[in-house]
From TrEMBL:
Gene3D superfamilies: 2.60.40.1840, 3.30.2010.30, Neutral Protease Domain 2, Peptidase M1, alanyl aminopeptidase, C-terminal domain, tricorn interacting facor f3 domain. Residues 95-193 form the Aminopeptidase N-like N-terminal domain. Residues 451-552 form the Peptidase M1 alanyl aminopeptidase Ig-like fold domain. This is Aminopeptidase N. GO terms for molecular function: alanyl aminopeptidase activity; metallopeptidase activity; zinc ion binding. Keywords: Aminopeptidase, Hydrolase, Metal-binding, Metalloprotease, Protease, Zinc. It comes from the Bacteria. Residues 232-443 form the Peptidase M1 membrane alanine aminopeptidase domain. Its EC number is 3.4.11.2. GO terms for biological process: proteolysis. Belongs to the peptidase M1 family. It catalyses: Release of an N-terminal amino acid, Xaa-|-Yaa- from a peptide, amide or arylamide. Xaa is preferably Ala, but may be most amino acids including Pro (slow action). When a terminal hydrophobic residue is followed by a prolyl residue, the two may be released as an intact Xaa-Pro dipeptide.
């Protein structure tokens, strides 16, 4: 294991390598115990570099068994090897030459799940970001691009399927039960996109003919017996391929595209060239075992990895500081895909919800960093919501600023100019500057300055003149990365009393306006609209056109009206959730001071009205009646948070809503549900979401679990079943009938890992203080496996990130329990331990007693001498 050497990698130190790697020939001899690897690299010194410079290759925990220059076996001092580095001296000053390196690995002992490891019986690899160096010594960095040819040898019985990147070239028998396959990838790629999979797998196949007529063989490999569950993933893949052609003119570029579903995986999935490897959670689905949320997740992740083929693979990153170049852009692309495939407003609400729940707390706490960071200790810790989700928002803002046509022209230029390159964020922006005829140097600050800007809006209406005052501020905690005014695109509308968008001409001289977008580029600006017959309702930041905290002291009546009649569906949702959020924030603060705050009946009525508003699609109605979660309310409170007060305030609001809305909710709930077989289409998903959202207030109003039990018993799909069971486990935990329902669920799905993850999660997330003890019991369950990331996340992550009340328990037991689990997990899988440790990131926002308990837990972690670099980096930055 790599312990921390304290080294910080800096963007300003970037320098190209002295050597180019033109081609890589790999041979893998997979054995039941160890794997032997031979890597033959075709190298060349780059022109203009020191002809005597040694070749220094990266390694991580490697065992070297031989080195050759051409056919000559080398011995020290011609080379020096440690587990982490191989240095070769006296290499040719010019021309191509070959170095062959032999290493021996123990894939079964690799619990980090980086490099070559075994999951179940399957051999598989994960190389992003720096896993290839755990297979062989290499210039393991994204700007070293080579073609690869891979030969895999294995026992046919253990591994009838042998896969790598690119096209299959050869295969055959070796005698003695052994066989081989050879794969050839003609597209030069960085080592992080290398992949190999070997095992006994089932396959689902299909075909796709690209716009220009290339016939592509598609295959999704799964554990034996599960390939039927890959049907929806296959459908999503074909839709993604078609969409990328239509929307961005991007076609697939090999004759074969393989996906493999793996049960032990650190992240969601990986875009290896022609051989995507997935956490099986994002491939395997059927109505009986997966929820509608799971279906949406599969669609998104399948699309995301496929879209990487152009944004990430054909055009890759020069260095890891440029991670947003591929990730922010690819998230933007997958969000646009989902918006086109489903309801755009529903998708946008879900994305903004995710951004606020994940990225805002990160950007407002100790793990804050710019979208394009300039230094890191451990790159694995920068696969963050800031790089991914905020990175996507920055691309969306570019699209808003340029408009659809010029944005597409900028993307076309990017693909044309940088195909085959390892590019930078500056390269990307330059394409939009050129294609859009615009200077984006101020906009670029979004990539460099950390923190969530505050946008303050004021309005004044007099004599038919509306004055909007806008002000931006990045003062609050922006980690020394600058606080210069940024270019904030503010989409807006002026809405009439009757609910129509008014067309009003701005008077000259204020901030620049382009159609329905105000371009705020100065610290503050005013815009005046003249000749208005009536005072309009001001609808700002439509579609969440910039990732900012909006402060707009708008009259309550105006906001209530906008919640009812803003022609922009997203803005209606925002108007209502902002009102609810504000109440919950104030009520939480009041409770903490021993007072109470009444839930304004007009807000309550607005929520109730939205539940039966036939003009809104059901999915949107479900989103409007859902209360913000406890963590979101805590974020709104911001400081001195008392999680018990937050919990009580939310409960009180739910009770008020449930009592007042009972009749309406019951009416909507009783309306006939859709008939016919299960369908994952958007309309059916929306209807289920609405019915399930109503279960909570209806159960609270009746004070009885009967409705949830009836729903559980009647459910014919996992969405309804899990919604009912979660409600029972979270609100009626002590009832014997709840236990029976949990047991019945367990028995039914005992052999289904993905469903059993849900069973673990729903218990770890029960919003009761005793969930800490429950989680302790869960990790003693025979089916709990710390080494399986999905299972570890289900229980430890369930408690740490999905259970604000128990994690932040007043006696500190939640913090201590999580810290203990992190220590144990860190020994097996540092990357997953570090990711879970980010749960502590908001510790300073709690009241002083909890702060000191959290600090104690963090300090005791930091004091451990054997912490991995991954976990040490998170813990130390969180404490700093
Ligand atoms: N590039 C992948 C994310 C990813 C990153 C690191 C990994 O290592 C375990 C795995 C996957 C994506 O954006 O989907
Ligand atoms: Zn990605």
């Amino acid at each position: 294991m790599r312990n921390d050497d304290g080294q910080v990698i800096r963007l300003e130190d970037y320098r190209p390598t002295d050597f180019a790697v033109h081609h890589v020939d790999l041979v893998f001899r997979l054995g039941s115990e160890t794997t032997e690897i031979e890597a033959r690299l075709t190298l060349e010194r780059r022109a203009g570099t020191d002809p005597a410079a040694p070749l220094v290759l990266d390694g991580d925990d490697l065992t070297l068994t031989g080195v050759w220059l051409g056919d000559e076996a080398l011995a020290p001092p011609r080379f020096d090897a440690t587990p982490d580095r191989l240095t070769l001296r006296e290499l040719p000053a010019a021309g191509r030459f070959q170095v062959t390196i032999a290493t021996r690995l123990d894939p079964a002992g690799n619990t980090q799940l980086m490099g070559l490891y075994r999951s179940g019986g399957v051999w598989c690899t994960q190389c992003e970001a720096e896993g290839f160096r755990r297979i062989t010594y290499f210039l393991d960095r994204p700007d070293v691009l080579a073609t690869y040819r891979v030969r895999v040898e294995a026992d046919r019985a253990a591994a009838p399927v042998l896969l790598s990147n690119g096209n299959p070239q050869d295969a055959g028998d070796l005698g003695g039960g052994r066989h081989f396959a050879v794969w050839d990838d003609p597209h030069p790629k960085p080592s992080y996109l290398f992949a190999l999979v070997a095992g006994d797998l089932d396959v689902l196949t299909d075909r796709f003919v690209t716009a220009s007529g290339r016939d592509v063989a598609l295959a999704i490999y799964t554990e034996t017996g599960l390939s039927a569950r890959a049907a929806y993933a296959m459908d999503a893949l074909k839709r993604s391929m078609r969409w990328d052609e239509a929307r961005f003119g991007r076609e697939y570029d090999l004759d074969i595209f393989n996906i493999v579903a793996i049960s032990d995986f650190n992240m969601g999935a990986m875009e290896n060239k022609g051989l995507n490897v997935f956490n099986h959670k994002y491939v395997l689905l059927d109505p009986d075992t997966a929820t509608d949320g799971d279906y949406a997740g599969v669609e998104t992740v399948i699309a995301h990895e496929y879209f990487h083929n152009w944004t990430g693979n054909r055009i890759t990153c020069r260095d890891w500081f440029q991670l947003c170049l591929k990730e922010g852009l690819t998230v933007y692309r997958d969000q646009e895909f989902s918006a086109d495939e489903r309801s755009a407003a529903v998708k946008r609400i879900a994305s903004v919800h995710g951004l606020k729940a994940q990225q805002f707390p990160e950007d407002q706490g100790p793990l804050q960093h710019p979208v394009r960071p300039t230094r890191y200790r451990e790159i694995n810790n920068f696969y963050t919501a800031t790089v991914y989700e905020k990175g996507a928002e920055l691309v969306r803002m570019i699209a808003t600023i340029l408009g659809a046509e010029r944005f597409r022209a900028g993307m076309d230029l990017y693909f044309a100019r940088h195909d085959g390159d390892a590019a930078t964020m500056e390269d990307f922006l330059a394409c939009f500057e050129e294609a859009g005829g615009i200077d984006l140097s101020q906009f670029a600050l979004w990539y460099h300055q950390a923190g969530t800007p505050t946008l303050t809006v004021r309005e004044r209406f007099e004599d038919g003149r509306l004055t909007l005052g806008l002000e931006q501020d990045l003062q609050r905690g922006a980690a020394g990365t600058g606080t210069q005014p940024m270019h904030i695109p503010v989409r807006f509308g002026l809405v009439s009393e009757g609910g129509a968008d008014l067309v009003a001409e701005p008077a000259a001289g204020g901030a620049e306006i382009d159609g329905d977008v105000i371009h705020l580029t100065t610290p503050s600006a005013e815009i005046v609209f003249e000749g208005l017959a009536e005072r309009p309702l001001v609808s700002v930041l439509r579609g969440f056109s910039a990732p900012v905290t909006l402060r707009f002291e708008q009259r309550q009546e105006d906001r209530l009206r906008l919640a009812r009649l803003d022609p922009d569906a997203f803005s209606r949702w925002r108007a209502l959730t902002d009102l609810v959020g504000e109440h919950l924030r104030n009520a939480s603060i009041a409770r903490a001071a021993g007072e109470s705050a009444a839930f304004d009946a007009r807000i309550v009525d607005a929520i109730i009205a939205s539940a039966e508003d036939e003009r809104l699609e059901p999915a949107l109605r479900a989103q409007m009646i859902a209360m913000p979660g406890e963590a979101e309310i805590a974020r709104l409170v911001g400081q001195n948070v008392d999680p018990e007060a937050v919990h009580e305030a939310r409960e009180a609001a739910l009770t008020t809503l449930a009592r007042r809305g009972e009749a309406t909710f019951a009416r909507v709930h009783e309306a006939p549900a859709a008939t016919g077989p299960f369908s994952p289409d958007a309309a059916a998903v929306g209807r289920r979401a609405l019915r399930n959202a109503l279960l909570l207030p209806l159960s609270i109003a009746s004070g009885s679990p009967d409705l949830a039990h009836a729903a559980f018993a009647a459910s014919d799909n996992m969405t309804d079943r899990l919604a009912a069971l979660t409600l029972l486990a979270h609100r009626f935990a002590t009832e014997a009938r709840t236990r029976s329902a949990l047991d019945a669920f367990f028995e039914r799905y005992e052999r289904d890992a993905l469903v059993i993850d849900k069973w673990f999660t729903l218990q770890a997330t029960a919003p009761v203080p005793e969930a800490v003890e429950a989680a302790e019991r869960l990790i003693g369950h025979p089916l709990f496996q710390l080494a399986n990331p999905n299972r570890a996340r289900a229980v430890i992550g369930g408690l740490a990130t999905g259970n604000q009340r128990a994690f932040n328990r007043a006696d500190g037991a939640g913090y201590r329990w999580v810290a203990d689990q992190l220590v144990a997990l860190d020994r097996l899988n540092p990357q997953t331990a570090a990711r879970l440790a980010t749960a502590f990131r908001s510790w300073r926002s709690f009241e002083p007693r909890r702060q000191s308990l959290a600090m104690e837990a963090l300090r005791s972690l930091a004091a451990r001498p054997d912490l991995s670099r991954d976990l040490a980096d998170i813990v130390e930055r969180t404490l700093a």
